[in-house]
Amino acid sequence: MRADARKNRDQLLTVAREAVAEQGVDTSMRDLARRAGVGLATLLRHFPTREALLDALLRTSFEELTARAEELAASGSAEDALLAWLRDCVSWTTTYRGVTVLMAAAIEDPDSALHASCTTLRAAGARLLERAQAAGTARGDLDGDELFALIAALAWLGDQPSFAPSAGHLFEVVASAILTGPARV
Amino acid sequence: MRADARKNRDQLLTVAREAVAEQGVDTSMRDLARRAGVGLATLLRHFPTREALLDALLRTSFEELTARAEELAASGSAEDALLAWLRDCVSWTTTYRGVTVLMAAAIEDPDSALHASCTTLRAAGARLLERAQAAGTARGDLDGDELFALIAALAWLGDQPSFAPSAGHLFEVVASAILTGPARV
DNA sequence: CGCTGAACGGATCGGCGATCCGTTTATCCG
DNA sequence: CGGATAAACGGATCGCCGATCCGTTCAGCG
After folding, report:
1. Same domain, B18 and B59
2. Cross-chain Cβ contact A145/B160 below 8 Å
3. Is pLDDT at B58 greater than 80 in this prediction?
4. In the prediction, which pLDDT does B182 show?
5. Are residues A76 and A112 in the same domain?
6. Which residue among A69, A150, B145, B180 sits deepest, i.e. has the most Cβ atoms within 10 Å of its Cβ?
7. Range of the domain at A6
8. Which of A99, A155, A23, A162 minimizes the C-alpha distance to B114?
C-alpha cells in the first residue's frame, strides 16, 4: 500500500474510533471524511460501506474478547470464568454506541464483514457456557446462541440512554438466571 | 375536520399500519404517502413527524395494554397476573417492527409524543410488580423502571431476526429471574 | 530523473424528511 | 342553488445522506 494511502487509512480509523464512541455507528460518512481531512470518495475507497469501516474498527476488539474467553476457559472456576467473560463482553460494548444492533445483523447475514468475528465470539462463549453446565453451575437449557442473545440484549440496554442506569443491576439479574450457583449434584 | 381530510387521515393510518408491520418503523414517509395515494405534504400535514404518525398508530395499543394491566391487577394470583401481563406486552411488540427502540427513546424524552403513553404503561407494570413483590413471588430488588427495561430487552430480542427464534425461551429464562416462585415466608 | 498507475477529491446521482406556495375543493351562508 | 372562503391538497424545492464517476495529482520505481 502506498504511504499516503496508509496514512489516510490510519487517520480515518482514528477519527472513526472517536466519532463512533461519541455519536454511535450512524455517524455521517461525509462528516467522518471531513474530520479526517480527506474527500468522501477516499473514505469510501478505503471502506466501501459503513459496515466495512466498522469491521476494521471492531475486529481487534472481537479478537481480544475471543482470546479472553480462551484464557478464562483454562482458569479455575467454570462459573467465575463465565461470569467474568459475560462482564467483559457487556462492558466492552459501552465503548462504541450502537454496536449491538450491528452484531445482531452480522450474525444473521453470512455475507457480512463482521459475520465471522461474531460467530467465533459466540462459539467461544458457548464453550465457557458448556463448561459451566458440565460443572452444574449454569442452567442446562441454554445454548451458545441464547447466551449470545442475552449478552446482546444486556448490551442493548446499556446502549439506550433511558435504560443505561439500570443496566448494571439488570446484568446481575440476568446473570443470576444463567448461573445456578454451586453444583447441587 | 373536513370529510376529505378525515378520509385521507384514515387511509394514511391504514397504510402505515401495514407498512410498519411489514417493514418496520423506518419505512419511507414518501413511500407511505404514495401507497396511500396522497402527496408527501399531505402525510406530513396530518402527522408532522414520523413520531407523530407512530403515536397515532400505537396509542390505542398502549391503552389496551394499560387497561389489561389494571384488569389483571384485580385477578387472583399476583404472580400469574404479572407473568401474563409480561407475556402480553412482549407478544404485542411483535406486531410492529422496530417499536422497541421507539419506546426506549420516548421514555427518555419528555417532549416525545409517546412519552406519556410509555410512562403510563410503565407505571401499570410497576403496580403489578409491587403486588407480586408484596406476595413474595417476585424478586424484591427490582423496580418498575427495571421491569420496563427487561420487557424492552425481550421485545428487542424478538425484533432481531437472528435472535427471534430464541426469544420465546429467553422470555422464560428472564421471567424465572423476575419471579421467585410461591412465597417462601 | 521521467513514467505510470495508484490514490485523490470535486461533482453528480437518487433518495430521504421537511418546507413553501400556488391550486383545488368541501363547506357554509345568503 | 350559487358564490365566497378557508381548509386541504400536492408538486417543487431545500439540505442532508450514501454511493459513484471521472479528470487531476503525485508517490514510487526503473
Report:
1. no
2. no
3. yes
4. 63
5. yes
6. A150
7. 1-48
8. A162
pLDDT band for A76, please (50, 70, 90 cuts).
confident
User: What is the amino acid identity at position A1?
Assistant: M
**Residues B75 and B161 occupy one common structural domain:** yes
What's the pTM? 0.94
Check B173 against A150: CB less than 8 A apart: yes
The rounded percent of chain B whose pLDDT value lies above 70 is: 97
| Mean pLDDT of all residues in A157-178 | 97
Q: Is residue A95 part of a domain?
A: yes
Say if residue B37 is in the same domain as residue B124. no
* Structural domains in chain A (count): 2
Q: Which residues of B touch A166 (CB under 8 A)?
A: 145-146, 149
A93 shares a domain with A13: no
Same domain, B42 and B54: no
**Do B98 and B174 lie in a common domain?**
yes
- Within 8 A of A156 by CB-CB distance, chain B residues are 153, 156
Q: Are B69 and B92 in contact (CB under 8 A)?
A: no
Locate A80 and state its grid cell.
467465575
> Between chains, do B153 and A156 touch, taking CB under 8 Å as contact?
yes
Please state the rounded mean pLDDT for residues B15-34: 97
User: Amino acid letter at B142?
Assistant: L
Residue keyed to cell 447475514: A109
Q: What is the CATH number of the domain that holds A82?
A: 1.10.357.10
User: A121: burial class by Cβ within 10 Å (0-12, 13-18, 19+)?
Assistant: buried
Among candidates B168, B65, B72, which has minimal Cα distance to B114? B65
- Chain mean position to CA A134: 26
Query: CATH code at B1?
Result: 1.10.10.60
Q: Is the CB of B30 under 7 A from strand C?
A: yes
Give the C-alpha separation, A124 to A21, whole Å.
25
pLDDT band, residue A180 (cuts 50/70/90):
confident
A27-37 tens-digit pLDDT: 999 999 999 99
**Beta carbons within 10 angstroms of residue B75's beta carbon:** 12
